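Question (not urgent): is this output format expected?
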Amino acid sequence: MMTFKIYIILNILVCIKGAPNKTCNSIKIQDRWYEKEILWANLGRPFNLYAHKTSNKVFFSYTVPETYSDVDFQLAYIDLETREFQNIAGIRGGCSVAIDQGNDEIYLGGSDGIYKYNMMTKLADFYKESGKNIWALFFRRNLFYISYPDQRLHIEVDGKFAVVKEFENFEVDHFHVTVDHENIYFANKTGFYNYDNDRLRVNVINDVMTVRQISEDNDGDLYVCTNLGVFIDLKNEGFKKVLDFKNIYSLTFDKDNNVIVSDEKRIIKLKHTTTGCPDNVSTHW
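Got this back:
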């Protein structure tokens, strides 16, 4: 009789506590499953991921503790073929990357100007804007940069930089022109916007989200990494959330269009897999 009572009590406890939690290493983006592979971890918060398609290297910046109350930034790359990791020396406060994929030119920005990375010597050579604090870089036919702390957008024309007239009254934290040159997006502390170049007006897309990076994949699909998750531009249908994780800080795509993301401490490659998670197993980041 005692054994029977103990058996009943144990069963009740199992029902109350529930079965052991099972988790899955795969995540779903739209209708496809991806398996996570950690490429880099635990040296600081990585952000501003940009893939150089020819070499299949991902250039990025990460935080480096400078004092107990402040941080500095270090530029680096990871080779997706060999998994080689390399810091890029000589750029103080290095935090920004832009790549001219057509001409294989890699631009890097820091607190004292713009540099170009030499793939042969693995050194960064000074380019332009000496003494300027570079918040962000972007390349689409021309090289753009955002200065800090005034957050002004500049463009290089005929070898010289000037403030972009259409944006001189806006603070800009992120800037992106789509590969087809049809859409211009920018973001700041007040929200995410589209600039209508034909009507010369700004359209509000979202005034709640904080944009962390704007990226396009190899097919020209636009993704926006935010504090609310990752969104894709469905053109006429607007932006749809495809990843409901709030701790993703950066997003890029390698030469084979694999997704590369970063969170607080890691750079992660999402590899397509035909094996997803069972319905009764939860996914986790």
